[in-house]
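<context>
A single protein, sequence plus fold
<entry> Chain with its tokenised backbone below
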Amino acid sequence: MPTARFLIGDTVMGRWPGSNLYYEVKVLSYDNKARLYTVIYKDGTELELKESDITLMPHENNSNSKHEKKEENNTANRASTITEEKTETESENQAGGRYNLRHRKDQGDGKTVELEQKTETGVLSQTKPPAAIKTTDLEFGGRVGVFFLMFLLPVTVLALLILCGQKDASLQSFPLELPALQSLWDWQVFGIVLLWLLFQAVFSLLPVGKLVEGMPLKNGKTLKYRINGFYALLLTAVAVGVAVYQEVDLSYIHAHFLQFYTSALLIVTVLSVYLFVRSRWASEDELAPGGNSGYIIYDFFMGRELNPRIKNFDIKFFCEMRPGLMGWVLINFAMLQAEMKHQNLENPSPAMLLVNIFQLLWVVDGFWHEEKLLTMMDIVYDGFGFMLTFGDLAFVPFTFTCQAYYLVSHPNELSLFWIITLITMNGVGYYIFRKANSQKFTFRKNPSDPAVSHLKTIPTATGKSLIVSGLWGWVRHPNYLGDIIMGLAWSLPCGFNHLIPYFYLIYLITLLVHRNARDERQCRKKYGSAWEEYCKAVPYRIFPGIY
């Protein structure tokens, strides 16, 4: 007769049906015939799980705590024997065959054997850490889609920069001939980009700022992160100030903008190859759930390893904000200087000032709240491959600056009415964005915090709750809504002569609509019937009045 691994009353980690997420559960009984454990979640939900879907609590000793305590009292110098058995590893998509979702009282004639709480010395067992689940739900059109995206994205950004730099930025005026090689590459520019990355990497390693733990990983461990981005931003500002005082011409960036982009693109490609190769030696619990399909092109694009590190240097966390966002601010400032130089202005135009100030506010806010990045999908779920590497080091600094780049060659006068309107619009968007994100972060950290304890919620079987009041009761993603309103305020200073300055806004809406769909799919798996109830309580996704 098979021996049960876990005893009645044991507190363990049980996998939630249809997902790769583990939550704290308590063992109630064991069906010896079906070989299923009946467990109860914190909210009272009872489910039946196989042994392969149960693992020990993080940092827990390999034996039952009560038994081990008695063992230590009786035989202090004798180590207990540990017998390790193999566990099944099944695909996430086979959840229906592995779980019985009936409550214990509805099990019919199935005989349930209550586990005895043993106190005598015996042979104990432990489970292996859960194996990485193979990715079967492919995004972006699967292998074919990501193959084309890897070429389409860099070419699209290059075309955008070419159009922004022309006097006539309409699509009809796009040059049919390829740019000359010397306009696309310069070794000095490449060296400057490398120095910029090294400069920011050194700042990120400075022993200033607090050391915090990230979200728990699949193996129950947590990684530590140095939160000093705001200090690095201040040091960067001082360095730029010194450069301006020494009369360094930052408009050099505008004059060699295409070469800066191609330099960044080469670095992205080399880094992506390195990340993919090193992921082959990563353990299974270090792999990302979305980049483990077994298809080389797809996994290269999505990223196989979740948190690639060189000792304590987290490559993904560094690239997510440091070089790209600070580069964004620096490029904007360089474009401001280039506008004054090209338009023979003593002071920057109101349109250029608004774009610089609005986007600087967003970047400063991001670094001030850097710790909250650790709860976002990019860090918690996505692997670090070509998609995020290109986004962080090339897409962000060279497309988010398109408004400032455009204004250098396409000045646009703003009336006092438009200036006040744009400031108000950006302020409203920022308030919604910051308030929503702060509420989410505070609620995740401590639902009993006075700042969020008044919010209405829907409990779920995972032990977590879903907010259904305040901003989060208005739409499901108020932070997305605030981001879009700000994006509109950043684009409007460029006027309405061309579509190019609105590229960021179009991209942002497309990205957030896609991310919303991915959020919905994952939350439906994670929360089950509670998510259906939540959708009825909060029917609008991003935009009020639009389902």
Remarks:
- The first strand starts at residue 11 and ends at 15.
- The chain is about 50% helix and 10% strand.
